[in-house]
Amino acid sequence: MIKIKKIILHLITQTLKTPFITSIGQVTDRESILVEVIDVDGYTGWGEVVAFSTPWYTEETISTSLHLLKDLLIPLTIKQNINHPDELQDIFKKIKRNNMAKASLEAAIWDLYAKRENKSLSETLGGTRKEIDCGVVIGISSTANMIEQINHYIQDGYKRFKIKISPKQDIKILDEIKSHFPNLPLMADANSSYTLKDSDRLKELDQFNLLMIEQPLGADDIIDHAKLQEKIETPICLDESIISHVDARQAIELGSCRVINIKPGRVGGLTESIKIHNLCQENKIPVWCGGMLETSISRAHNIALASLPNFTIPGDISSSSRYWDHDILYPEIKAEKGKMTVPTKEGIGFQINIKNIEKLRKAIMVFEAKDIM
Ligand SMILES: O=C(O)CCC(=O)C1=CC=C[C@@H](O)[C@@H]1C(=O)O
Ligand SMILES: [Mg+2]
User: Fold this and answer.
1) Complex ipTM > 0.95
2) Which of this chain's residues are annotated to bind Mg(2+) (predicted)?
3) Is 5 considered catalytic here?
């Protein structure tokens, strides 16, 4: 049984190697909150808040997550005797949404639990793969630069390539890329930049035989995606629309998508991610693990999750060096020939590089169980 002694929040900021631009926002300096949970037996688990500094992707931000953790989630959790991380869904049930804040604490407790069980996080979650295929996201830039990026990542061996599209940049860039790389396993992420009125334009994308188009319509929509999927051949993949296994069930029943991107932060944690994975497996809907421009702590959790059997499509789990000059784990998280080995060591299977965390840290907040009523 887990009895928590201390929870530490490490607030860090890193500058991305190159700004990450999408149809809805741009990230240059990436704030993160690293969540460290230490139990009375000295085991330590780590999680990460993957919300951004501003609410451009979901309604959550670093500030809202800090408030939820400090004022609600840590006080609710720190005195609990926890037999299994699944219990956190019940502990958190009084708190509506705020999934990324919840997921960060839940992930740390999953990591700690796996270490206490002396098992890898992958095995603890029900993983079956010993290695995972990795995909990579091409940043929005000039056509020439995007072609150059793709060439670079092909050399790295990545198995799937994702570009951002919007009504401002779609057909032309896809045509350019497909003419340079006719057989490239390519997908496009629209981040809700189209509406049902763009159905004819989205139908034109069928000519490119994309693996999928991710979240073409509204971030909270399931019904219009079902209408769109009836009109286009390209498989729709939902990201922002799916924040729980209930959303996933409704999307599957309505035919709103043929693929789902699972991000533990977006859906409230690893327990909910497994529920979505299992539901999709039962309904023959393949899933892949999305990314959030995160540090290697969340990336390590994603590797473990992506080792589950229905993660059959390479996810946004690229090398840490795709975005960062320094890794905060060792060994560094690195795709070799487009694959990553799933760690077999206990927990997330990587060591924390506390020196690099201290270099990036802007603030630290310590919560002792003994001090909380
Ligand atoms: O983490 C990565 O490598 C890619 C992240 C990524 O593509 C996204 C992160 C957050 C919001 C979006 O722009 C996009 C996505 O929707 O998947
Ligand atoms: Mg997306």
Assistant:
1) yes
2) 189, 214, 239
3) no
